[in-house]
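ARCHIVE CARD
CATEGORY: sequence design from structure
SOURCE FIELD: tokenized fold
FIELD CONTENT:
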């Protein structure tokens, strides 16, 4: 039986950091070192200000760091000493060449595999935790075996991660399931068992699902595609609600009580964001096209198309309400992260919406409790709808309080569902705004009747709130 004593995790990001912290807390006898090529990221993991915000993470890192949890840039040394290596590197959408805008960019994964092969002097279990296209484990295996030193063998496992940002610690501690895919051979089963026995320290055995590698890889893409599809489905219905006078929250409640449908992931919004949903669906679409299954690809592509449309539809609605012009008007964006309880802005709907307003020459005022000004400027200057840093700096102001952001604004747009936005003093806010004062709740978190009685013009995703003249 293979016993794991030392673990190396390549990639100290949103997945590598939290998942290894929980693993370290649950397996105090195992030494876990998280490595990264980014010195600033590792420095931050070793400091009091961690590189990511995740509720409960600070305390857990402080508890384990220096005991059996380490963060280092010594990639080679850590690989050499490890029995098991998690590969948690980024696998973004490819932005060049064949498959541009859809396929996964496996550059970082391949670099990690080559490094493992070049360094390893003893057998290792290599665990693919990054989200990858089906059969990526094949590529990793070929690179490892082609470059292995004599006598060194590798077992490759697929162990996709299902944590969601903002709830990562709870998702890791109380995982619905852990998936482990591996080669269906005696050596493969031994490697699967070695990893399963680590998770079994805190996850009930019946929730540790083992399967063949390809099923495991495909299950991860499928899970994200299904979750994103639910958001796009309810968002599609939100448009029907606005047109008919139905209320999307009532519809969601009505269908969600059907146990076959379930109530989760039926919250209408300005569109899903985050580093995973769009990327993984596009990855799935590209896979289907490569497999000559264009109808399947088109089916899933529609989920992304609906998401794009929802963001654009919402922005058009705001501009139409603001008398068809936002030029030089102060538009306050409350929340820039892609969801609450994270500082992550990757693919955040707020980025797209802010870009639309900048293109219309609005003055965009942004407040988010966890997103820095630098991050906002980086996000808004990325190639896409707008790539002019000067225009961004002229058109965007970052505020350190919601009250300052909304002062003198023509409209407030709630882009992220931060809890603190629910308890703001809206009477005070109303008094300091231009009139008519508009508020657009893109997250369905505010008390719309109360806002209306204060005097706001209220517009909401998926329902009509009658105006007050
Ligand atoms: P991330 O960008 O936050 O972190 C990846 C890290 O890997 C970076 O710090 C980068 O410097 C490092 N890295 C890249 N190549 C390296 C190399 N060769 N050697 C050492 N370090 C290297 O990414 P993330 O959000 O943690 O995602 C990682 C993977 O997990 C992706 O495949 C993603 O799809 C998947 N995933 C992400 C989430 C999520 O919520 N973020 C959830 C589930 C799965
Ligand atoms: C997702 C998956 O949930 C997770 O299992 C996977 O490992 C990584 O991708 P994440 O992107 O961190 O996690 O957050 P999630 O809670 O899934 O939200 C994604 C986006 O959908 C957010 O922008 C969120 O606001 C939006 N969303 C979610 C809705 O608009 N409505 C909902 O009902 C649920």
């Amino acid at each position: 039986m293979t016993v794991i004593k030392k673990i190396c995790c390549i990639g100290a990001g949103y997945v590598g950091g939290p998942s290894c912290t929980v693993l370290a807390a649950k397996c105090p006898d195992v030494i876990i070192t998280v490595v990264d090529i980014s010195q600033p990221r590792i420095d931050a993991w070793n400091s009091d200000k961690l590189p990511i915000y995740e509720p409960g993470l600070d305390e857990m890192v402080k508890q384990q760091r220096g005991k059996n949890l380490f963060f280092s840039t010594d990639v080679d040394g850590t690989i050499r000493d490890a029995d098991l290596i998690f590969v948690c590197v980024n696998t973004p959408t490819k932005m060049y060449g064949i498959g541009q805008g859809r396929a996964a960019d496996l550059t970082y994964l391949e670099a990690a595999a080559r490094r493992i092969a070049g360094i390893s002097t003893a057998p290792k279990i290599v665990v693919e935790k990054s989200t990858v296209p089906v059969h990526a484990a094949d590529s990793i295996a070929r690179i490892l075996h082609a470059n292995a030193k004599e006598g060194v063998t590798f077992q490759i496992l697929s162990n996709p991660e299902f944590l969601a940002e903002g709830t990562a610690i709870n998702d890791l501690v109380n995982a619905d399931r852990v998936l482990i895919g591996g080669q269906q051979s005696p050596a493969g089963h031994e490697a699967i068992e070695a990893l399963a026995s680590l998770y079994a320290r805190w996850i009930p055995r019946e929730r540790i699902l083992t399967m063949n590698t390809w099923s495991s890889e495909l299950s991860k893409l499928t899970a994200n595609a299904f979750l994103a599809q639910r958001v796009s489905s309810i968002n599609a219905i939100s448009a029907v609600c606005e047109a008919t006078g139905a209320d999307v929250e009532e519809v969601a409640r009505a269908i969600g009580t059907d146990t076959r449908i379930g109530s989760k992931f039926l919250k209408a919004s300005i569109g899903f964001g985050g580093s995973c949903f769009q990327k993984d669906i596009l990855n799935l679409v590209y896979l289907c096209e490569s497999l000559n299954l264009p109808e399947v690809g088109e089916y899933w592509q529609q989920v992304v198309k609906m998401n794009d449309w929802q963001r654009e539809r919402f922005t058009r609605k705001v501009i139409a309400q603001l008398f068809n012009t936002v030029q030089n008007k102060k538009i306050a964006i409350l929340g820039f992260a892609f969801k609450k309880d994270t500082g992550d802005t990757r693919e955040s709907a707020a980025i797209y919406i802010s870009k639309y307003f900048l293109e219309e020459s609005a003055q965009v005022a942004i407040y988010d409790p966890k997103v820095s000004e630098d991050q906002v400027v980086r996000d808004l200057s990325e190639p896409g709808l707008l790539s002019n840093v000067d225009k961004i700096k002229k058109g965007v102001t970052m505020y350190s309080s919601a009250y300052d952001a909304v002062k003198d604004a023509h409209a407030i747009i709630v882009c992220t569902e931060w809890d603190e936005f629910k308890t703001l003093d809206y009477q005070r806010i109303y008094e300091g705004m231009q009139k008519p004062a508009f508020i657009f709740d893109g997250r369905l978190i505010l008390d719309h009747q109360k806002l209306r009685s204060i005097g706001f013009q209220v517009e909401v995703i998926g329902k009509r709130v009658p105006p007050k003249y």
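CARD ANNOTATION: The chain has a mean pLDDT of 96. Residues 6-203 form a domain with the Rossmann fold fold (CATH 3.40.50.720).
SHELF: design records, drawer C
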